[in-house]
Amino acid sequence: MQVSAYLKLSVAVAATTILLKAGAWWITGSVSLLSDALEALVNLAGAMFALAMVTIAAQPADDEHPFGHHKAEYFSSGFEGALILVAALAIIWAAVERFRAPQPLESLGWGLGLSVLSSALNAALAWAMLRKAREHRSIALEADARHLFTDVWTSAGVVLGLLAVMATGWLWLDPLVAIAVALNIVREGVALLRRSVDGLMDRALEPQVQAQIEQVLDGFRHHVLRFDHVATRRAGARRFVELHMHLPGQWSLGRAAALRGDVEQALMSAVPGLRASIQLLPMDMETHGRDEEDLP
């Protein structure tokens, strides 16, 4: 199943959980269950936006976007993070109002049953989506999966809180649990926003991936060949590395180009999704890897 298919399934599951959680809130009047339903609404909006961004990211390069559209996935992560923060504020507002005017809860058994059912759906989907996200290196799919996992833990906290209300009769536990839910999803929202910003700022590849690249280059290094100015970045599922390869000045262009092709092929075979760009230079020539105005 492709990334877009998982996101379409996420949209369908989110719509189903909204109905289940909204029903649980309606029959119980619990503000913590209302907070759970609001987060499910965020799940739906996030999944729909992620699907749109993944569709854009899959488009081939064109004249206006010669490097492709891969970074579109980062907008999905940022959008979902912002939605989470908005939902958290709405939950806190509702919880404060309930602190001011406590209300009795009704039919908690049915409400808890619907909440547990929706959580089971989210947990199964989130687990499958996270595996697919790691396989395809999709930040949009990973963001949606992690948000679903947050929703599962949120629902678990709500269920435990309402069980405590049933056991003690302390109605103030209901809004207290709702506020705890809000603070938990704020943390997840901030993490998603940070990852989105990192991606748009051309963050370097993961240390383990950089180590793989260096290992490949070590296999080619010898006294007449060296590499420098190695720079990496990530754009959605695509990975990039740029570097200089220094060769003896007396080598023919054909011989140098053939060796560069071997290095590029070895790098792309070692790191899935990598695009390598290698500049050929004679051994006695040095260039700057940064623009002059960027130098200190």
What does this structure look like?
There is one protein chain. This protein is mostly helical and 296 residues long. The chain has a three-stranded mixed sheet with strand order 1-2-3, covered by helices on one side. Helix 8 (253-270) links the parallel strand 2 and strand 3. The chain has helices at residues 3-28, 31-57, 72-100, 108-136, 139-168, 173-200, 207-218, 253-270, and strands spanning 226-235, 238-247, 274-282. It has two domains: 3-200, Up-down Bundle (Alpha-lytic protease prodomain-like), CATH 1.20.1510; 207-294, Alpha-Beta Plaits. The protein is elongated.
Radius of gyration: 25 Å
Name the strands of the widest sheet in spatial order. Answer: 1-2-3
The CATH topology label of the largest domain is: Alpha-lytic protease prodomain-like
Q: Provide the helix percentage.
A: 55-70%
**Distance linking N and C termini:** 49 Å
